[in-house]
Amino acid sequence: MSMSWAHVRFMLERARGLVRRGLASLRTRGLGPTWARVRRQFARRAPPASGPLYFPDAGAFQPFAVPASGAPRASIVIPVYNQAAHTLACLRALAEHPPTAACEIIVVDDGSHDETHAWMPQITGLRYHRRAVNGGFIAACNDGASRATGDCLVFLNNDTVPQPGWLDALLATFDAHPEVGLVGAQLIYPDGRLQEAGGVVFNDGSAWNYGRFDSPDDPRYASVRDADYCSGAAIAVRAALFEEVGGFDTRYAPAYYEDTDLAFALRALGHRVLYQPASRVVHLEGVTSGTDTGSGTKAYQVRNRSVFAEKWAAALATHPSADSLPSAGSVVQPQRQILIIDAETPRPQHDSASLRLANLMRLLNADGAHVVFLPADLRYAGDDTARLRQQGVEAWHAPFVQRPSAWLHEHGQRFDVVMLSRHYVAAEFLPLVRRFAPQARVVFDTVDLHFLREMRGAELAGDATLRHAAERTRERELSVIRASDTTLVVSPAERDMLSALLPGADVEVLANLHEVAHTGLPFGQRHDLVFVGGFRHPPNVDAVLWFGREVFPLIHARQPDIRFHCIGTAPPADVLALQAQPGIVIHGHVADLGPYMDGARVAVAPLRFGAGVKGKVNLSMAHGQPVVATACAVEGMHLTGGHDVLVADDAGGFADAVLTLYRDEGLWERLAAHGRANIEQHFSMQAAHGTVQRVFRR
To answer: What is the model's pTM?
Structure first.
């Protein structure tokens, strides 16, 4: 199959899928919501807006102040030798956009004979140290480090312009990854092109600035990633570790390869070296030492390569040869590489399927895999894309992907496993994956069994047309399962159903993934009821309308002080209309669910149809918030009525259960404790670890 025919086939399958889903949406949602989904699907895919680079105003020297702390977390060490104007610009940048973290700034003057000695003492807050004689870059850095008091040392060249937020991004990397010893910034040329996204070292000791001259926004360079080394122009290292390895190795004096050597030394001690793209620093490469390796200080780069190669010969034996070209796949070897494709970038603050997928990627990263994510809509998702990248996920989007067929043609051979989420996404991409990644195992993630949810909705509505549509979905979903190597479902009930329908299929259960949170406020300080669920999901619309129209009036009549908080993206008009009833508050999307999970007394899950495991139930229980639910809402969740949940399916019984739980502190505390235990046993990250290894390590 040629690549052009593969693309045509992909587009035909996508068109058929869009028509099918559009007709189904018309039947279940109506014209208005369907049209909104169509507009969202075909909206222009805007590239990420990294914004213009910041440069401080140039001008004659005037005294000013820089950030200073008597108890700094970070000590910024800036070695300088002449080039006073560049040092001034660097310090002005630090002054105009001070970091959130407490820091001190140490300028080490390595014997300058320009304005440096006159200007630096006039800068308030600056720690200025003038060396008696010029000793070179390594000597100046080690001298500055010996005078630092922060927990982290940050080495910063004076020919740099740190961009706003650069230091906080470096330090946050240590918080997110405790095993890290050194973090390097993304270096950018003044014209906006990328200078370095971490360094690659070849087996002969030579090095490569990965990403040089490309776009800083290119997905290949936009995620946190292990690097062979990071340029000493802007790096942060734990001060205790820097001291443990003896600082920059003086065998490389006066300069060059000391940063590469430091990275190898820290890795030899078991610490990671990470590249952090959220820390952006403009670097005027070659200002101090030039670029000619045949003369001046730069000549030491050639000499020191052989010194470095001899010292680290054993480690370099596993590195690629110097005649190879670094690529997105090669720079993360020997890690397993896993591609995940879903309809869109997960939004864990909006829905449980997104939270499950985001947490799965975290588990895979923690297990040593390199995860690549491709949204089928190719859309850059702002903060949600950025969050994935901070997890270490290589997240792609337009305009860096124009045609999925061409992208898979280029990248397909890298992957050990490809996971396709949702049957309509899998149907589009499976032929492309089999064509361009034939070596990869294909894992199909159902998210939930769509045909089961549609069938139950049709039965509740008594609609024969919906029933026929559900049957067609069933055939498509089962067809994808047959064509995949492994299928993931979210509950044992769905696994057993598929085992009966397709006895030969390899089906594994990967339930919702949650972290058990703190318990929030005690019973006596909690008030009201809460429901959480996005309204693009038809079962949630039906659930809230039923609860608001038939159940909550019974509750309000018996206890008028109780309010019902309804939280979820895109509530339709009939849900918004419920606010006309006393005690009902429709919030729409809420960015921070914490106050409602920690402060509402009871969560309700009044679902009358659906499939899979209900994230809203998991979410509340993970926060120690008891739940009243229908039998459908707790299906396959290892829950027992009266032990860790209250279950009722008719309006009167549901209202009675809510009021009983709302008023009985002892019952409330038992259900809260048992619900949290259920999450730890069945829906925690730890509980899923064995399944994740079994599915993704074969």
So the answer is: 0.83
